[in-house]
Design a protein that fits this description.
CATH class of the domain at 387-411 and 455-555: Mainly Beta
Low-confidence stretches: 175-198, 270-286, 307-323, 653-666
Structural class: alpha+beta
Distance between the termini: 21 Å
CATH superfamily of the domain at 387-411 and 455-555: Translation factors
Largest sheet: 6 strands, mixed
CATH architecture of the domain at 387-411 and 455-555: Beta Barrel
């Protein structure tokens, strides 16, 4: 019933055995589980079908044909093993023992271990933290005691030593003579008598060397004084004074004007040079006619508002009493309906927002800027970074570091416990919750970390939405990630996957395109698969792979302000409803305009004091066209990384498959 535990076991399993139903194969829950396993990376597997002997021979053939047809989609070349006799069971075991093992890249380059036994030794000063002694077989690569280990679902830890206890599953019978064999997982605690058995005949393989041991530091401690400006030198002061003298000019100003105010006064000559020199026939339009049209429109709108107020009346509506539990469900439905509306509006009018009436647009959008071209305009990746960027690590060349590390793994021999050895790891400063989780029967999976993989950075995943999920997923909503061997919670950003240097933010996870998901998370070297889940449930949202570890990837949020043409002339038009004050029009005057029908233009001047403006375009507008103004701002993910994932809701059947009586009871 725990999908995350199934995925954790599949990360380290050599083989998976799928037991199918003789009639239907698998249900919707099985289909969901298979989707997750295929997306994460499927190890070697086998298919078996018990039962079916009580059916008539003719019907048995029809059922087998139906099952084979169902298998073609998921397992096109798989062999189906019946499980009805001892001989058939022996064939299945022989197949599992001799089949070719599939390679999973993210685990083959790291040492990993599935706990066969575990014991928790509390620390002297605290019972909630202590040393966890985990016993199991080393797989993947040689395990070095100086490296860090990651306990899936709990975080990164250091090791103090590695022991070599007797192998409980040895193939040599002389080693196991006189000892009790056990094929099940055994959980040992200080209160049990098994401590002495675990401690006897233990050989210490290696102890950690503090000088060579990897550090647990995952974040940079920022220095608040690091960004402060130093006192300028005498040469810099002289250069600044010389540049001020060179840029001085003489202007006529009213009495009492300060130097700062005088710097903003423009001469008549400068004003004339700054004006656009456009020789179009529409430049001779009478501005008085425009202002008169604007004033008439304002008077008509006031009359319409008064008429609407006269038509309205107030009345008291009684609220019906409902069940409290039902009201809670209705509130959830309303929240989901609101999300559906937002997603639909974002599809119909991408990035469009309404200009606020109570706050000036120049204040509301002061962090945004205009771009001549989203594709070619420059944007410095080191500009206006948040304080969280002072806590992360960044590579000078990530791909070169990755290649160098993988080359070291292939060529150099690491000292430590070799693959296949049965060892006991002494993991330091582990919370007692890890042992409690193991006692509940959940798998305890450990992975050794490559250098730098404990450090925080910005990870980018390329994902595609899973067809089974149709609910809207908003950006910065907290999700559960299965990234390679890690499992954690984070709040991602969604952005377009392009080859440009800037990438537009997507407010929702699109169902029809591959998107890039950006989060703060520990460094992981690709290749690594990624799965995204909803919080506290098993709903698979998206699947994909790790794209890069790059804090310099620029994700830009776009806002679109829209206006409507009020009076249209040959190549000019009066536009309204984009702004509501003269100052806002002057503030955004340098930004280029565009229309939904492909016209481009710019603001020439404001008309009146209510936000109407005279605009010039490269062609005549249509009356049904809409004038747009694009603004941009760089955005960053929220720092919500948490390696401790809460327990999800156990698997249950969906409401659509429940009998009618059960639905009514709920």
């Amino acid at each position: 019933g725990d999908l995350h535990a199934v995925l954790d076991l599949a990360k380290v399993a050599d083989s998976l055995l799928f037991i199918l139903d003789a009639a239907d194969g698998w249900d919707s829950v099985g289909e969901h589980c298979l989707s997750c396993l295929f997306a994460q990376g499927l190890p070697s597997y086998a298919l078996a079908v018990p039962g079916g002997t009580d059916l008539p021979p003719k019907k048995r053939i029809d059922v087998r044909k139906k099952l084979s047809k169902a298998l073609e989609k998921r397992f096109p070349e798989a062999r189906l093993f019946p499980l009805n006799t001892e001989q058939e069971s022996s064939l299945l075991l022989r197949h599992l023992a001799t089949q070719k093992q599939r390679r999973l890249a993210f685990r083959d380059r790291r040492a990993h271990l599935l706990a066969h036994a575990a014991r928790f030794v509390p620390a002297q000063d605290s019972d909630s933290v202590g040393t966890l002694k985990v016993s199991g077989f080393v797989r993947g690569q040689t395990l070095n005691v100086n490296s860090l280990v990651h306990i899936v679902g709990h975080g990164d830890f250091q090791m103090s030593q590695v022991d070599a206890p007797p192998d409980p599953l040895s193939l040599n019978p002389r080693v196991m003579k006189g000892q009790k064999r056990s094929q099940d997982m055994e959980v040992q605690d200080d209160s049990l008598n098994g401590d002495d058995e675990m401690e006897e005949d233990v050989k210490v393989l290696m102890k950690a060397n503090p000088s060579k041991q990897e550090s647990l530091q995952s974040e940079v401690v920022p220095d608040p004084m690091e960004g402060e400006q130093t006192w300028p030198t005498e040469e810099e002061l002289q250069e600044a004074e010389a540049s001020l003298k060179a840029n001085r000019r003489v202007v006529k100003v009213p009495k009492g004007t300060s130097k700062y105010q005088a710097a903003w006064i423009v001469d008549d000559g400068e004003e004339g040079s700054e004006k656009d020199d456009v020789d179009d026939e529409d430049d001779d339009i009478d501005d008085d006619m425009m202002e008169e049209a604007v004033s008439q429109e304002g008077e008509s709108s006031e009359e319409e508002e008064e008429a609407a107020e006269e038509e309205c009346e107030t009345m008291t509506v009684s609220e019906c009493l409902r069940d409290d539990q039902y009201d809670e469900k209705v509130e959830e439905d309303e929240q989901m309906l609101e999300r559906y509306k937002q997603e639909r509006m974002d599809e119909m009018f991408p990035d469009e927002v309404d200009t606020p009436r109570d706050v000036p647009a120049r204040v509301r959008f002061q962090k945004y800027r205009g771009l001549k071209s989203f594709r070619t305009s420059p944007w410095d990746p080191k500009e206006n970074l948040p304080r969280d960027y002072a806590r992360i690590f960044q590579f000078q060349d990530f791909s070169r570091t990755r290649k160098h590390l993988f080359r070291q793994i292939e060529k150099e021999e690491t000292e430590g416990a070799s693959v296949g050895w049965y060892v006991t790891l002494h993991v330091c400063n582990v919370p007692v919750s890890v042992m409690e989780s193991f006692k509940e029967g959940k798998p305890l999976v450990l992975f050794s970390l490559l250098p730098h993989e404990q450090k925080m950075s910005v990870l980018n995943f390329l994902v595609r939405r899973h067809p089974s999920n149709s609910e809207p997923v908003k950006a910065k909503e907290e999700l559960i990630f299965h990234c390679g061997f890690r499992r954690f919670r984070a709040s991602p950003l969604f952005s377009q996957h392009t080859s440009a240097d800037k990438h537009k933010l997507e407010r929702f996870l699109r169902p029809d395109a591959a998107l890039v998901v950006t989060v703060y998370a520990p460094i992981t070297f690709p290749p690594a698969s990624v799965l995204l889940f909803k919080q506290r449930c098993n709903d698979l949202i998206a699947t994909g792979s790790l794209l890069s570890v790059d804090p310099d990837r620029i994700v830009v949020k776009r806002l679109v302000l829209s206006g409507h043409p009020f009076k249209i002339f040959t190549k000019t038009a009066v536009v309204r409803y984009m702004f509501f004050s003269r100052e806002d029009v002057m503030w955004f005057k340098p930004v280029e305009l565009r229309t939904k029908w492909g016209r481009r233009g710019h603001i020439k001047e404001p008309l009146g004091t209510h936000g109407h403006m005279k605009c010039h375009f490269d062609g005549q507008l249509k009356s049904q066209d809409t004038v747009l103004l694009n603004l941009y701002k760089r955005v960053f993910p929220k720092w919500t990384y948490d390696p401790h994932v809460p327990e999800p809701v156990p698997w249950v059947r969906s409401e659509s498959t429940l009998p009618l009586e059960e639905v009514e009871m709920e």
